[in-house]
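Weekly sync, protein design subgroup
Attendees: M.S., D.O., the rotation student, P.L. (late)

Item 1: inverse folding check
M.S. brought a backbone from last month's batch and wanted to see whether the design step gives back something sensible before we order anything. D.O. pointed out we never logged the input encoding, so this time it goes straight into the notes. Structure tokens as presented (174 positions):
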């Protein structure tokens, strides 16, 4: 099943919104999409190339042009199912937000402990969770030092871009 224009648009939105992601290579059946942010360093692929496809690979610009004619993606109503959806941050707390649409994980792997729990102390820059999209795990860090007050999303649950994942009470005077 080839990727639709909407699928390509969503992939490009993920790349655009990901702060620490410079490029994406996606293969679905015989369709290949290679997208790179402007100014991204040319790096060697970490994975061995797949068998050559009978269709030519789509460039990021060509995919962007094709996606531009597609309708905007429908909102994912199920993305907040099973989670405490907050749209506003309570006074005195700082939100840790999802950098992109994906799956929320509190553990680096199923057999390891959670990055944080409610009541845990965190420092600015500490990893507090991961958001996975298409087998790529993106680190989410705390912007402030403080204490984790609430975790709003269950492990393994889908999240939307900019969704509040957890709340941190900042340490005063820091």
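Designed sequence read out in the meeting:
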């Amino acid at each position: 099943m080839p990727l639709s224009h909407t699928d390509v648009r969503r992939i490009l939105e993920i790349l655009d919104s990901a702060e620490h992601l410079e490029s994406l290579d996606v293969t679905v059946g015989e369709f290949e999409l290679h997208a790179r942010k402007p100014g991204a360093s040319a790096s060697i692929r970490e994975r061995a190339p797949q068998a050559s496809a009978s269709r030519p690979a789509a460039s990021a610009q060509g995919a962007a042009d094709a996606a531009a004619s597609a309708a905007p993606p429908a909102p994912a109503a199920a993305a907040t199912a099973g989670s405490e959806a907050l749209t506003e941050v309570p006074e005195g707390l700082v939100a840790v937000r999802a950098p992109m649409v994906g799956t929320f994980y509190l553990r680096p792997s199923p057999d390891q402990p959670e990055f944080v729990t409610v009541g845990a102390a965190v420092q600015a820059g500490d990893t507090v969770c991961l958001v996975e999209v298409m087998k790529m795990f993106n680190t989410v860090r705390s912007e402030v030092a403080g204490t984790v007050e609430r975790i709003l999303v269950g492990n393994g649950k889908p999240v939307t871009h900019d969704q509040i994942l957890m709340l941190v009470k900042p340490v005063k005077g820091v």
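Discussion: The chain has two helices and eleven strands. Residues 5-17 form the longest helix (13 residues).
Action: P.L. to compare against the previous round before Friday.
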